[in-house]
């Protein structure tokens, strides 16, 4: 019985990370067609208003014209989980489907105060969707104890929508400052959820974790501040700080093994992000941009802690803080047509020691390659198209229980993706 309980705890702890991260940890590395085509490089250039408000509000002073941009991103994700334990092995594909991601950016420069620029950004700032069917041939997705040793069907949904009212001011001819509050709307649904203690309400000796489906959207608040400096040589520099986004305590209406009501609560905040950027536009019709970003996962307890609490709940997923690099290149072929390419790469936030607690969803895409084109049709209307691809990334490690790793076991999750984006921009 003790072994059954330990195995159950371990498997649900492993699935817990499938519930937490996809992409660059929790946050997207870029927003909108133009910023995505530049691999997210936006801290030290003013190519795009959406990227400006998401990564450095100060660069909004360099955006030309009052305008509004609508962008849609359609990712195609291929995700698989494989496991081997207890003498069996198998592989299962997630039924992710297609979930469009939207970005809107609105820019207005005051006529009476031309040095002041106002903006409003609405972003799909991060999240995930995972939907694995039960699979008797795959140990981790086999039926829960006592019938099997897995979790059965596994489902999770995390949606992070952010709203950023922005003000940017031209302090001197060369230097700008920007500030924006960040309002987050988070929707989180997990089945099962191992952030809370399991229960054995039916007294069969096998503990199980509840589903956390009966919840509502939760709000969070943070802020972002940035600076932007331009030089006559064509070299531009930028910096920004994005504070933690403090979400209200997540509350869920759940039930125990007997169907009796069980109220669940747990915390999930978003990490602070530090960005440095530069760009060079001293060569006519060319722009080269680079961003270096630091995502401080270790400052958020549920992301940095690992292991089990005495009640059987999981303390966290054991992530480390990471650096990432975004490189973008733009070429203007005419006043109405330009093309861009980009490369994004990031460190792995998941150390080998806790790889098993992060199976179900790699916490990052190690590389993303992107390309895009923009076309202006009239003085007030333009379109932008982008494609990006992330090659396969994997997280792999032994099957770990509270008593240690199971000999000759392994759990691996792999993911690769393609995406297409389109933006419509209207000047006014």
Automatic annotation (TrEMBL):
Localisation per UniProt entry: Cell outer membrane
Keyword Lipid biosynthesis among UniProt keywords: no
GO cellular component: cell outer membrane
Pfam families: Toluene_X
SUPFAM superfamilies: Porins (SSF56935)
Predominant place of localization: membrane
UniProt membrane topology term: Multi-pass membrane protein
GO molecular function, one term: long-chain fatty acid transporting porin activity
UniProt entry keywords in alphabetical sequence: Cell outer membrane, Membrane, Signal, Transmembrane, Transmembrane beta strand
Presence of the UniProt keyword Signal in the record: yes
The family this protein is said to belong to: Belongs to the OmpP1/FadL family.
Listed name of the protein: Outer membrane protein transport protein (OMPP1/FadL/TodX)
Organism of derivation: Neorhodopirellula pilleata
């Amino acid at each position: 019985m003790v072994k059954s309980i330990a195995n159950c705890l371990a498997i649900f702890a492993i699935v817990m990370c499938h519930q937490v991260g996809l992409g660059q940890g929790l946050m997207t590395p870029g927003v909108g067609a133009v910023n995505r085509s530049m691999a997210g490089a936006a801290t030290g250039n003013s190519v795009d208003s959406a990227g400006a408000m998401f990564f450095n509000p100060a660069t909004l002073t360099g955006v030309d014209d009052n305008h509004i941009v609508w962008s849609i991103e359609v990712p195609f994700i291929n995700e698989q989980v494989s496991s081997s334990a207890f003498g069996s092995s198998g592989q299962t594909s997630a039924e992710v489907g297609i979930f469009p991601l939207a970005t809107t950016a609105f820019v207005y420069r005051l006529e009476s105060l031309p040095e002041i620029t106002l903006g409003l950004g609405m972003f799909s700032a991060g999240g995930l969707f995972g939907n694995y069917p039960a699979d008797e041939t795959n140990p981790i997705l086999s039926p829960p104890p006592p019938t099997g040793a897995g979790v059965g069907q596994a489902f999770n949904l995390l949606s992070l929508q952010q709203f950023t009212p922005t003000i940017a001011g031209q302090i001197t001819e060369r230097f700008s400052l920007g500030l924006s509050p960040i309002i987050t709307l988070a929707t989180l649904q997990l089945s099962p959820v191992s952030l809370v203690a399991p229960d054995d309400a039916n007294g069969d000796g096998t503990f199980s974790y509840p589903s956390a489906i009966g919840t509502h959207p939760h709000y969070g608040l943070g802020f972002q501040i940035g600076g932007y400096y331009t030089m006559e040589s064509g070299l531009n520099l930028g910096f920004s700080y994005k504070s933690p986004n403090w979400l209200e305590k997540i509350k869920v209406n759940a039930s125990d093994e007997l169907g009796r009501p069980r109220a669940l609560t747990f915390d999930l905040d978003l990490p602070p992000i530090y960005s440095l950027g530069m760009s060079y536009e001293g060569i006519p019709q060319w722009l080269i941009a680079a961003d270096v970003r630091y995502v401080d996962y270790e400052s958020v307890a549920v992301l940095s802690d690992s292991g089990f609490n005495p009640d059987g709940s999981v303390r966290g997923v054991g992530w480390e803080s990471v650096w990432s690099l975004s490189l973008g290149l733009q070429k203007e072929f005419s006043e109405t047509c330009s093309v861009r390419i980009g490369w994004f790469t990031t460190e792995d936030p998941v150390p080998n020691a806790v790889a098993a607690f992060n199976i179900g969803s790699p916490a990052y895409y190690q590389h993303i390659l992107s390309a895009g084109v923009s076309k202006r049709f009239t003085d007030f209307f333009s379109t932008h198209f982008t494609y990006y691809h992330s090659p396969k990334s994997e997280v792999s490690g032994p099957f770990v229980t509270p008593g240690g790793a199971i000999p000759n076991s392994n759990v691996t999750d792999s993911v690769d993706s393609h995406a297409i984006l389109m933006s419509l921009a209207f000047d006014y």
